[in-house]
């Protein structure tokens, strides 16, 4: 592992982290689709899979432009979430509860992606890599838009599961800005 001494090197390291995360997500999403019961959630996960594949392609172009390799450390955050998800898949028997657990995992992945792409976009802009920053902005928007869809599906699934009036939709608005 080489030392990181400047912003460009840091940018590349975080790009490698996002790249590995997206690759792990491409492996994870088809597995999740097999366990999902909600058609709406399946469609969103398929959208997530398409975005992850497209992000990998864009990141590979970025690495070429930076004359850098995409090979780096394993994204431990994504790996940990995948491990937790494997536990859910074997332990949760109620289909709606499993869908809620899967949504939660995907939202956590999107939180990591959003934070990562925001930071890298700032680094790119500071370094004068404006085209790169624009590509990262587009990936960030994909993540944010998908996050909004996941938020709605999570709220709807929880409302459906509770089927009591102990919660109202406003209480489950999950005031998170993504």
TrEMBL record:
Classification via Gene3D superfamilies: 1.20.1260.10
Q: Which superkingdom heads the taxonomic lineage of this protein's source?
A: Bacteria
InterPro entries per record: DUF892_YciF-like, Ferritin-like, Ferritin-like_SF, YciF
**How is this protein named in the record?**
DUF892 family protein
- Supply the source organism for this entry: Rapidithrix thailandica
